[in-house]
Automatic annotation (TrEMBL):
This is Exocyst complex protein exo70. Coiled coil: none annotated. Belongs to the EXO70 family. Belongs to the class-III pyridoxal-phosphate-dependent aminotransferase family. The chain holds residues 1 to 471 of 1116 of the full protein. The lineage of its organism: Eukaryota, Fungi, Dikarya, Ascomycota, Pezizomycotina. It comes from the Eukaryota.
Amino acid sequence: MVLRQLNPKPDENGVDGKKSAVLHRDLGYGFLPLAEGEGNYLVLENGRRIFDASGGAAVGCIGWGNERVARAVMRQMLAIPYCSTVFYTTKVQEELCRYLVDSTNGNMSRAYLVNSGSEAMEAAVKLARQYFLELSPAQDQRTRFISRRQSYHGITLGALAVGGHEYRRAKFEPLLMKNVSRVSPCNTFRGKKAGETDEAYVARLVEELDAEFQAVGPETVCAFVAEPVVGAALGCVPSVPGYFKAVQTVCRKYGALLILDEVMCGMGRTGTLHAWEQEGVVPDIQTIGKALGGGYQPVAGVLVNRRVIDVLEGGSSVFVHGHTYQGHPAGCAAALEVQRIIQEENLLANVQAMGDLLSRRLQERLGDRPNVGNIRGRGLFWGIEFVADKEKLEPFPSDDHVGLAICERGLTAEYGISVYPGAGSADGIRGDHIIISPAFNVRSEEIEWIVDAIGRVVDDFFATATAHMAV
Ligand code: PMP
């Protein structure tokens, strides 16, 4: 079945129409020649404008073409573009780390800056291990991690091993560290039983987590790893109230750390700077990425709790880790300026207000559609999960790539909207979805336009596609 419309063969067109020399990735290999960004619009080489309703992969958060950020980066590049952190630090790195630490109300006490979410997760995993080595020689046996099925923590081997994204893991399974086990995510749409209260659901999940600690030996676990709002692996799925508090209690009981991956859902995306602020917990280690630099430079980071830092700093060795480009001054300059703009323009309040509007309108426009299984999210981070059968919650066959096909339809000139796809799994435990995550400065009339455009894309897609589908 061919549902996808735009995708040419991978090497057909580079930006100049000649055979591309780019090694393309994944199913959605880049094929639209992008020339520039203007506010919330992406402009193709041929001049066609596409509204960016997802900031790429929930990266863009202040729109594109911001001169303030560009100037800040240029100033930094002219001052000093690169800094080996072995001997040097820079004012921008110090300022950004101070800003990040101060933003946690005294809970986190150090920040470690890297260049991607995967690097941040690699560092988080190694920090957890080193924490236990410094804590006591007896803790050397802590070598295991527990995470959740249908999670994504990055694409490098360590981060991939911790995550539970079956498709992205499959080919590399033999290369991945084996000391990771997984429990169910908190996903009301697919995990909560009919009639079950939030409290009972949390209790059931916590029992499962506790049993997993017991099964692997609680004294062997370094950390439990989770995204406060699951991004790429499920499509903007928040947990029910009380879940993270209960999970942290289990971690504390067994002396394990809580690592929260906020690479996608953090830095304001869900309406507070840190998603954990809405969960009533403070993680031991937290990773951040995407909205930190808003796409203006590759920059990500790790925030480390005082409890962990006290042990590491009192320990016998430095953190045995490092990247050539960590704490990159241009990345720090971009992130600092993006964060200043978010604060000065009071954009978190806008994320909350526009998020409420987006959720209401999406529900009104698409909630009753037979192939729309679930609309969920938080702040400006919303996912729509599609189903072949709404009663049975049956997903579409993963080979149909329904999420990707819907996104591609949106990209055509008829609709001109960019949203982010997510694939279903072959075992049917998660469905195809799309992610809607516009910039934090999106306006109400733009939200209305986004919902109208997505409504048309989804309706038209299923009106024409279901004829070929086994529904
Ligand atoms: N963690 C989460 C929650 C993510 O969503 C991602 C990226 N989608 C990563 C880690 C990895 O980040 P990166 O792609 O920047 O390496």
